[in-house]
Each structure stands twice: as C-alpha cells, then as structure tokens.
Amino acid sequence: RTMGLDQAVALCMDHCHYAELSGDDAWFKTVILTGGSACLPGLAERLEKELRGLLPSSISNGIRVIPPPYGADTAWFGAKLVGNLSTFPGAWCATKKQFRRKSRFNIMW
C-alpha cells in the first residue's frame, strides 16, 4: 500500500523541480545510496532506470544514482570521519553511562 523507493524519490524530485528552489537543479538530481540494503547488486542502475521512466525528460536528464562507495560500511566510514573532527567531542557526545541511563527509561527493550 505504500509507494516504492523509485516512486518516493521521483515524487521528491518532482516537488524540488517545480518549487524552483535554485537556478541549478543538479543538486536534487544526484541520489546517493547508503546502508546495507543499498549494496544489493544492480540497485543503483535499476533505480536510475526507473526514475528516468517515471519523470519527464525535463527533470530526468542528468539524474545520477550513486551506490555506496564503501558498501555496507559507508555509514561506519562517515561516523569515523565525524568522530575524528576536533569539534566532535562536547555536545555531540554522551558517555556510556548517560546513554544507558536514558535508554533504560525511554526505550523498551
């Protein structure tokens, strides 16, 4: 009963195109896949093909779907980059003790 990935992305691109948020529409025509499911063989190519079929040529020209560069470990590499920033410690971080204390009351395991 819900729309597929291709339909959801096409709808988002369509809204961005008609909102005319900027003169350059290349920013919403690049789709970057992440996570383990994004590593399914042929997903990037299939999604790109489906988007070209769903959208008019004025929107679909220039669409690029990029698979995860590091496979399922892409999220880990991103976290590693953020974790190595000098500005990372502080408000971003919670100690293990703080996390467990919050988790115990907010999340039902």
TrEMBL record:
Pfam families found in the cross-reference section: Actin
Cited InterPro entries: Actin, ATPase_NBD
Domain of life assignment: Eukaryota
SUPFAM superfamilies on file: Actin-like ATPase domain (SSF53067)
UniProt-recorded name of the protein: Actin-related protein 8
Organism, scientific name: Citrus sinensis (Sweet orange)
Lineage: Eukaryota, Viridiplantae, Streptophyta, Embryophyta, Tracheophyta
